[in-house]
Design a protein that fits this description.
Blueprint: E1 2-10, H1 20-24, H2 31-42, E2 49-57, E3 63-67, H3 72-80, E4 94-96, H4 98-107, H5 116-130, E5 132-134, H6 139-148
Parallel strand pairs: 4-5
Antiparallel strand pairs: 1-2, 2-3
Helix pairs in contact: 3-4, 4-5, 5-6
């Protein structure tokens, strides 16, 4: 029989306290080993909250850890080292490069889209709604340049 424990953890900072520790304790597993694995798998998301799922076989005490990916907006904020997006529609809070966009698109491998171009366009759409320009331009114009072939990935 399997038990599933889920929680939202700041990358690299899981601990034996809530929400995971109290839920894992009654299952009779090595909490420190699980926390260590979670911290190792989430260290690249330091400063960002990420969903974590621990699936425990209650008979054998074997477990596996599944880590989700942070939201696209959280990855953009981390990449630009800013706290939040724009409040007003015409406010610009930052500028991101195509290389940074591609890095985020690759991290968000779970995003819908057949190829890198469609994933990059999704990240650009998020940038537009957050008040972030790309290469000094409106993200929408970058999307048009991707479609026309003016910008190649």
């Amino acid at each position: 029989m399997e038990s599933i424990v889920e929680g939202l953890i700041e990358g690299g900072k899981a601990s034996g306290g809530p929400p995971l520790g109290p839920a894992l304790g009654p299952l009779g597993v090595n909490i420190n080993a699980i926390i260590g694995e979670i911290n190792e798998k989430t260290k690249e998301f330091a400063g960002i909250r990420v969903s974590v799922k621990v699936i425990v076989d209650t008979d054998t005490k074997k477990y596996r850890v599944e880590v989700g990916t942070p939201s696209t907006s959280a990855l953009i904020l981390k990449e630009l080292k800013i706290q939040k997006g724009a409040k007003a529609k015409d406010e610009v809070v930052g500028n991101i490069t195509i290389d940074q966009i591609k890095r985020i698109a690759n991290v968000k491998s779970s995003m819908y889209g057949r190829d890198l171009k469609s994933k990059v366009k999704q990240v650009l759409g998020t940038c537009k709604s957050m008040g972030i320009t790309c290469e000094g331009e409106n993200p929408k114009s970058i999307m048009e340049k991707l479609d026309s072939g003016e910008i190649k990935l």
